[in-house]
Design a protein that fits this description.
Number of strands: 11
Strand content: 35-45%
Structural class: mainly beta
Order of helices and strands: EEEEEEHEEEEHE
Helix content: 10-25%
Strand order of the largest sheet: 4-5-6-10-9-8-7
Distance between the termini: 18 Å
Length: 178
């Protein structure tokens, strides 16, 4: 569901179906895909045991990009995933995010928090030659440890310089509400 409430003429809001996840993106950016997705953090063979009262049970994902040639313009993903109730006591967001460290030499992680959430901002580079992409991602987890939320922005190095302010605004408008 895409809602324009309060976004103004230059922006549009992405909002998850359950109303917990929001981000503001420029109005001329295309939303390529948006809606429910499959579970990635639940053993679906035993899904009936994965939830406790009050859990959000619908994983959601939105993919978007600026107009222009792919790779030369920013592209992004926003995602929410339910965490299996049986894993919550042992699930550590820092360990999950640090799994990226093994794949990328320039991986950096910074702790961030809001009133209701703790998380990390992560940056890294992936690809070779003309396929190089710089990534800036934000991960949050709610206090109940029932869900993980992520926004990821990717762009070529030249694109990062050109769109730095817009990318930063999209990342800073990413909101998760309990």
């Amino acid at each position: 569901m895409v809602a324009a409430c309060g976004a103004g003429p230059d922006y549009q809001y992405l909002e998850s179906d359950d109303g917990h996840v929001f981000a503001k993106i420029p109005s001329d950016w295309e939303i390529e895909r948006e809606g429910a997705v499959g579970y990635t953090m639940i053993n679906t063979d035993q899904v009936q045991f994965a939830f406790t009262p009050g859990d959000d049970t619908q994983p959601w994902r939105a993919e978007f990009e600026a107009p222009g040639r792919r790779g030369a313009v920013p592209e992004g993903v926003i995602e929410s995933q339910h965490i299996d109730a049986r894993w919550r006591d042992s699930f550590r967001l820092n360990e999950f995010v640090d799994n990226l460290r093994e794949s990328f030499d320039d991986y950096e992680r910074t702790s961030i928090s809001t009133d209701d959430f703790v998380g990390y901002e992560v940056t890294f580079t992936d690809g070779d030659g003309i396929d190089v992409r710089e990534y800036n991602e934000v991960y949050f987890m709610d206090a109940r440890r029932s869900a993980m939320y992520r926004i990821s922005m990717a762009c070529s190095p030249g694109c990062i310089a050109e769109y730095a302010n817009v990318i930063d605004e999209v990342l800073t408008t990413f909101r998760v509400e309990p």
